[in-house]
User: Fold these one by one.
Assistant:
Number 1:
Amino acid sequence: MNATMPETRGRARGILRQARHLVAAAALSGIAMGGALAADMPEMTLKFGHPYNETHPLALGAQKFADIVKEKSGGKITVQVFPNSTIGSSRDLVEGIQIGVVDFALVPTTNVASFYSPLDIFYLPFLFRDKEHAYAVSDGPVGEKLYADMLEKTGIRTLAMYESGFRTITTRETKIEKPDDMKGIKFRVVNNPLNVATFKALGANPTPMALSEVFTGLQQGTVDGQDNPVGNVKAFGFDKVQDYITLSHHQWAGIMFLADDKMWKELPDDVKTLFKQTALETQDWERKEINAVEEKYLDEMEKGGMTVTRLTPQQAKAFQDAMEAVWDEYREKIGADLIESAVAAK
């Protein structure tokens, strides 16, 4: 299902991406240095919601966006950031954008897929070979086509793609090394049919639950395990109520930076440029930050008593093989051509 990406291609993509964002930075510098432009910007206050703890790199990226916008607009544009699902769950935030009560939001692709199903491509289990492959899909032609179609059909604009990283499996009592270890365990999963199907294929008992409810669910034994990237496990304290974590890397968690298109259409061009380029600037910052802290978090978890399991290639293949039925089901639902384009993305 997966193939190793040549190192030279990865470097070439990185250079192209860096060049694109140098151009973005130059555009932002033009806005900042051109006093007349900043002076002409309208005064406005906008709402930015997300479900993440204030210390999470995703939350820090959202706040960084707000801070840069305030600075570059000469203090005229205030972006109020609401973390920790304080103005709604991931689903609530998407609905809020559609009805115009939320201006910006960070929402996992799997939650947005409930409103625009082709986004399930991002959560097709074991689709991505590595993070560079995921970036090639999210930042390249495949992603651009998806976002344009989603905008047309839902009125939701995509400005950037942050990330939580690859998802892991945590449990309270069972060390997970092979698919059979999952059988019968009650796992919290994202409320999306693809996530449910993935865990059913492994023999687990999937239970959809909002992210804000997971810690309590684990603490009270409503569920025995869950799957989330390392950053979420640490930021939400799941390591305090779980004894085992397996680095399964079964799905990549892209976090969409969304905007209300009705709000967007009313903005002056210079404000649109400021928002778009700042979203891309903070996207790159957040990705670097989340990747930098993952090993630190894992080290802290191990020192805190959590058992960390790193799958061998043979063990990982057993999990991949168990996903054949899921791929067969979603090849028709997502579209064979879209899957092929994502697999081939470079």
Number 2:
Amino acid sequence: MATFIALTRLTDQGMRAIKDTTQRAQSVRALAGKFGVKVKDLYWTLGQYDIVVVIESDDELSATAFAVSISAAGNTRSETLRAFTSEEMGTVLARMG
């Protein structure tokens, strides 16, 4: 299972509807299942990013389709990072030769 970390900023539209942010988070979790993606963790943060989401997916295409669908709603813009466990990184390093 691949892990992704989405560093998310609220758009002006998302900020105007900030009181609905926890309800939208529930909708995001439900939508994730339709893409075969799991929202493992979701945090509201202070600083450069407003929300940080940890996502797990069997494949990158499903994770990407999910992320694009969320952005299309217009409330957020995200920078998504592929994250690796220690075991996965060990596999990567072993392939270096």
Number 3:
Amino acid sequence: MSIAVVTDSTAYLRREERDRYNIRMIPLSVIFEDASYEEEVEITSSEFYDKVREAKVFPKTTQPAVGKFAELFEELSKDYDEVISIHISSGMSGTYQGAVQAAQMVEGIKVYTFDSEISCAPQSYYVLKAAEMAEQGATAEQILSTLEEMKKLVKAYFIVDDLSHLQRGGRLSAAAALVGGLLQVKPILWVENKKIVPLEKIRTKKKALRRVEELLAQDVQSGDSYIATVIHANCEEDGRAWMNQLAETYPNVEFNLSYFGPVVGTHLGEGALGLSWVKQI
């Protein structure tokens, strides 16, 4: 059975990664007043952050229309027997539910939807694993079983400069944002029950980065092989410096650099940094 892999733009896969496995991508959009832009298609990350600094009204985000998914699944039915569609956490966006609805609308192809329960680089881990396994001839059931096992292994932590972005976007309570602002803390955030929540409150960004590194060290000291990703919100120089420092310290970890694109960047804000990792299986 031939299997196609679909994801959405919030995985922030590089073009060459998508092309390598013929991964299909459905974009989410950001809205500036009355102008809408599909991320990864009509607006780049750097263009987005430039527009945010100039905008009078804070941008909003929107999920893809169900019809977009249905059109893609119908197109794929011409060449594939099955689809595995992997998406941003259902606790952060309605994108996953849109894929579920579209899957029920199409005929001639079996669509399996997978809620990554996260976003960004960690979401891409699932997508790339599914694509690799599909290329190697694994069944959809085998792929989905492996992805569920990965959920026990994927870790991700985020440090933001300004909690107001998360609060404005409804991803964090007003009380949590207010306390963070008053104390001038750099909270470490993570995803719990499919939503972004504070994990620990740290006084400075330097200490917050060090604490996230401690969490990484607890996992990778076993000597097993890991993939880890430093993720930045339009602060590539800071992200790359952190990645290089980590790579020197943990030689058993394969590090790479990614970014928070427009949709996720709307909620985290410019200057945010993240670190995610997963044990290779």
